[in-house]
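User: Can you help me understand a structure? I only have the sequence.
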Amino acid sequence: MPSWNNQIEYSEKSDVAILESTSLPFSLIVWNDEVNTFDWVIRTLVEVCDHSEEQAEQCAMLIHFKGKYAVKNGDYDTLKPMCNSITERGIGATIEETVGG
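Assistant: Let's start by predicting it. Here is the structure, written out as tokens:
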């Protein structure tokens, strides 16, 4: 399911705001394993992806129960260093093209 980044554009001719949706073309996927602890995954998401503690906890739960989860969406050049940092910490991560992106 693609994620949407909403931007608001204001017309100079009227007071009407036009909502545009921009698809983020790639997803950073983190994979579940039987090795890494919840605390380590949460700490990694906070430090690498700049997630809040609560957001990282929610992602860790989804990773655990679904087997994988898209923890961040964006362009490839932004996500690649994050993916590398996560895998360097021993956690499985990949970048996938977002469907329709």
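Now, to help you interpret it: The radius of gyration is 16 Å. The mean pLDDT is 85. Let me know which part you'd like to focus on.
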